[in-house]
Each structure stands twice: as structure tokens, then as C-alpha cells.
Design goal:
Blueprint lengths: L2 E2 L6 E2 L9 E3 L6 E3 L4 E5 L5 E4 L7 E5 L3 H9 L2 H6 L6 H13 L8
Antiparallel strand pairs: 1-2, 3-4, 5-6, 5-7
Helix pairs in contact: 1-3
């Protein structure tokens, strides 16, 4: 089926491109596809956990796969601001730092 666009009047062939949701890393502010970032979620109890599915209930924030972004987000309190909590629980901070150490360091293209 071909459709006619209203602005140009030209016919467009083929299916519409699939929409890819974009999210922003709270540390480096880089925008990427939702699936390319790691979601952290604040649950009802105020605890912060990693959400691998991206579908858990609660307020979410996104971080890159770069360990420096994780360290920067914890050090600069970016997670507290994004998740709207006053203080990150020490156990949660330790778990997030441990997860950050399991991530492979990103290579800089140059």
C-alpha cells in the first residue's frame, strides 16, 4: 500500500520504520536506544536495583555500559537526583559498584 504525504504530495513506499525509544545516561548525558542502556529502578521501599528487563514498577534511571559512568553517577549523586531519593542506601551503592566492576571497560576509538 502506498500513501501520500500531506506536506510534499509524494508517494512513500514500504512499511514505516519501527520507532526505537531513546533514553539518556544520567552520568554522561549521552542519548542511546533504550535497550542499549541499563535501567536502574527505585522500588516502593526506596531501594535501588538493577532492572535487566526494563519493565519493573518504579521510577527509573538509565546508565551506559561504561564503568566510569557508574562511578561518576554514584560520586556526583546523579542517581539520587534522577530517582528522587535523598540518600542512596549503602548496600545499594555497594551492589551498584560491584556490578560496575563486572562491566568491561569501553575502548576509545581514535
Amino acid at each position: 500500500m502506498t500513501t501520500v504525504t500531506q506536506t510534499t504530495g509524494k508517494k512513500r513506499k514500504g512499511p514505516r520504520p519501527k520507532h526505537v525509544p531513546q533514553r539518556t545516561c544520567v552520568a554522561c548525558r549521552r542519548t542511546d536506544a533504550k535497550r542499549a542502556l541499563i535501567r536502574l529502578v527505585r522500588d516502593a521501599g526506596g531501594r535501588v536495583q538493577i532492572d535487566p528487563t526494563g519493565k519493573r514498577n518504579g521510577r527509573g534511571a538509565y546508565l551506559c555500559h561504561d564503568p566510569t559512568c557508574w562511578e561518576q553517577a554514584i560520586r556526583r549523586h546523579a542517581l539520587e537526583r534522577a530517582l528522587r531519593i535523598s540518600v542512596l542506601h549503602p548496600d545499594d551503592a555497594a551492589a551498584l559498584e560491584a556490578y560496575a566492576h563486572t562491566l568491561p571497560p569501553l575502548e576509545v576509538a581514535g
